[in-house]
Amino acid sequence: MNIHERLQTARKRAGFESAEDAASAFGWNPVTYRAHERGDRGVRLPVAERYARALRVSLQWLLTGRESDPATESPLQPAEIAGSIPVVGRVAAGVWQEVETVHDATDPAEWIPAFPHPRFPARVRAALKVEGDSIDLIAPPGSYVDTVPLDYALPADGIEGLLREAEMKNRPCVVVTERRRGGLVEATLKVLARRPGGGYRLEFRSSNPRYQRGGAYENGLDFDAAMLGEDAEIRITRVMIGKYESTF
Q: Cα(171)–Cα(240) distance, rounded to whole angstroms?
């Protein structure tokens, strides 16, 4: 069952005989809603959230079908969608944005499914949308990275422990770095890697030659312990723990 079939199922279980009846009841554009139920058009996350709330199913079930039956779902709570995390901003190399667009989760416009994590509950997690191709070998443009604040992820032995945990799981250690200029910030995803001869580097992982060694961005920068502080010009703020890619 795909999303448009789940949408039909949820609408019928909610007591609406036709797509037109549901659209009329909730003030939706009937042409658009019919197209979503037929699968003629993709459903964006903010729209899926609106449908899920109105039809009283979980956003996770509507998007992924991971829960068993919409008839057994509890109602969604405004601003606290069970099983979801807010998209609070974007990461894009070379793009300067206002600080609030990266850190303000008070009224998020988008949510993504929050799949269970053994260490981090949904309430401490936030998603960032990836723009550009500076790390497309790990997170392509248009995908969302599930992140937690550095303080939550950093083990007792610091950066070495963080990197060792990733190595034990045979996966890259991806962090969010911020470079500030006045009231603006450039938020970028980088891979924390070991530097030959000792120490660490923050590197891109891109198919674009400009981000590779010798390219315009010189493939990242050397890590400095000051990057863990609040007042550093370039600092590490969050750690990636997962990724979500929409299929529609």
A: 11
Tokens of 88: 């609070």
Beta bridge partner(s), residue 144: 129, 244
Alpha carbons 188 and 174: distance in angstroms, whole number: 10
pLDDT (tens digit per residue) in 148-193:
888 888 888 899 999 999 999 999 999 999 888 877 888 899 999 9
DSSP class of residue 84 equals E
4: nearest Cα among 47, 43, 31, 57: 43
Pick from 162, 164, 185, 167: nearest CA to 239: 162
- Phi then psi for 223, rounded to 5 degrees? -75, 140
Question: How many independent structural domains does the chain possess?
Answer: 2
Residue pair 162/192 in contact by the 8 Å Cβ criterion: yes
* Closest to 227 (Cα-Cα) out of 161, 177, 169, 186: 177
Instruction: Answer yes or no: pTM beyond 0.90.
Output: no
State how far the Cα of 136 lies from the Cα of 141, in Å rounded to an integer: 7
Domain-ending residue, one of 37, 72, 107 = 72
Same domain, 228 and 145: yes
What does the pLDDT look like over 8-66, one tens digit per residue?
A: 999 998 888 899 888 876 667 888 899 999 988 888 777 887 788 778 788 888 888 87
Task: Report the distance separating Cα 209 and Cα 231, nearest Å.
Answer: 32
CA dist 157 and 234 (Å) reads: 21
